[in-house]
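User: Quick sanity check before I run a bigger batch. Here is a single chain. Can you write out its predicted 3D structure?
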Amino acid sequence: MSAFKVPLFIRGEIIEDDWVEFGGRHSGGGFSAPDPHKYVKDLPLANPMALQDMQEVNFEEILDILEELGKNLDFDKNRYIRQAYEAGLTAAPYPASILKNSYLNLPSVFNRESIREIAEQRIGVDYLNGWVSQKLLDGRTLNVRAFGARTVHIPAGNGGLVSAITLIRNAITRSDAIIKAPSNDPLTAIALARTLADIAPNHPLTKHISVAYWKGGDEAFEKQLYKPEYVEKIIAWGGFASVKHVTQYIQPGLEMIGLDPKRSVTIIGPEAFADEATLLEVAKRTACDIAMANQEACASARVIYVLNGSDRPAIERLNHFGQLIYDAMLAMSIELTSKPRTFDRELRDQMDATRLDDTFYRIIGGEDNEGAIIVSQFDEPVDYSSILSGRVANLVPVDNIKQVTDAVTSYTQTVGIYPESLKKQLRDQLPIYGAQRLTSLGYACNVTAASPQDAIEPVRRMCKWIFEEECDPDEVFPLWRI
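Assistant: Done. Predicted structure follows.
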């Protein structure tokens, strides 16, 4: 029996009919939604010219509506948001305290000046509002404008923030969005769209949002939707398999903007061990990077390289540091992190095997699946570091920075670094190895939407960059006169 229902939202219209059953990602997380095959032809714009109304909306008007949307997302007053929260209690991997906190913070994402900053920093508001002219060296005048596109968004389900950012990016770029509701966050995007429809029922922003659930990999459905005549860009978040699956539909006229899964690492310099007070501060920062949102994000710390040597005294200092991190993690607010709802069985088995001999690795905590710090007793991470999750991290002692750079690859997203001087030292090296974001220790999961993402400019790429030229034969050499 379905735990809840996920309606279909098509350009302001709610459809609650033709229900079919879908399985969730967690036990008891099944739900029902309208049969996507019956509505696949209704999702795309029937005519590309229908997007013209969005291009005519002034940016300040977009800000007005998004600001009003944020004001109407109060957890205690918005029934759609509460429904999304209740569905998340079944579908999402987060405990109730973390899940509720994410919805309490949702209105702040729609801060007017924050959205303006995203648009200005990542695109330029002038390019969104009209044509920007520039005189080139050859004499011609180049007029450039950022136009919206017909898009499909496949957002990640690790928190309602992703659905909010998706809606904001669509509004900023004046695009048309078909949003696939994630199975582990099935109602947040619907809640945002329904609230938008309540406050601006006939506005182009509402008329260019659709939210639907279909099972990823349903080729009979996706082959009808993923066509250049219907969609120009697919913005795909998610796991390796799901992102790779989408690539089969890419062809001339249909671009994929991939925000695929990444791993993150942490680098801590010897300055952390200057004194006990400093070490405790660094431990708190490290715990935050590990445990925030229960280590579900790509940016979460998992392997922490500590540049303090690997001899026996250094290892003892590292063991003490591991205990401080573990204690700091357990002391964090339950609104930010708490004991995971589920724990990976393979990781549990690996950790149990590791406990049998602490010669090479020492595990601090973890007996009750509450999270743990694995301290390597030599300069290598555990061989199951790729599956670390559920607030489990690995401290690795190293003697030189090359041991760290060898571990950084194109799959490395965030690198949290302490101290700042070490970050400045490494910022021109780590990107060459593949690192995409360098940040101060403690801020790995404290992200901003005004930055690039995964080493690309996704908001900028969502736009179609159109240019129009003015060529005066008296200024630009006329080829026909040769």
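The first strand starts at residue 8 and ends at 10.

User: Great, the batch can go ahead then.
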